[in-house]
Amino acid sequence: MASIAVCPGSFDPVTLGHLDIISRGATVFDKVIVAVLNNRNKQPLFTVEERVELLRQTTNQLPNVEIDSFNGLLIDYVKKKNANAIIKGLRAVSDFEYELQMASINRKLDESVETFFMMTNNKYSYLSSSIVKEIAKYHAPVSDLVPDIVEEALRKKYAFSS
Ligand code: ADP
Q1: Which of 26, 28, 49, 103 could form a disulfide with 115 if both were Cys (CB 3.0 to 4.6 A apart)?
Q2: pTM (two decimals)
Q3: Domains defined along the chain, listed by start
Q4: Which of these is catalytic: 31, 51, 129, 133?
């Protein structure tokens, strides 16, 4: 049976920290489906379509990585895609409590789906999409934090604000 993992998140926008987790995950699993959560409770900077497109362009050199989006419960989406694993990245202790809760509830909902945690690459341990947006908003460079096309997309988004 092929091992298929779903890597869920907001990816608003994708950072080098996300790409590090995705590319390392792709060396372990036969297929990695990066799934952009369409969360109506959050006010994102990029639309789901824009986030999917940025992920597509920044992972196109990884043949076993697929980009998609989903609504609703993650575990339902995982089953729909015939996946058997969830990949999450861990940055700091602060990520741990929430991720433990999510992994536990997902196991309760479906025991056959396993959650795998990958430790952040040390150089990205401080990196989050929110931090990147905060910096880009004030027109400071984010070239060490995101791929060039993401920096360009951020520049366009914030061109007419502040
Ligand atoms: P955020 O908005 O906090 O950047 P997302 O919800 O888009 O994150 O995260 C998707 C997944 O990527 C989560 O499992 C998250 O822990 C992981 N992740 C995000 N940034 C990093 C990073 N710098 N290093 C490792 N994992 C990360």
Answers
A1: 103
A2: 0.94
A3: 4-122 (3.40.50.620)
A4: 129
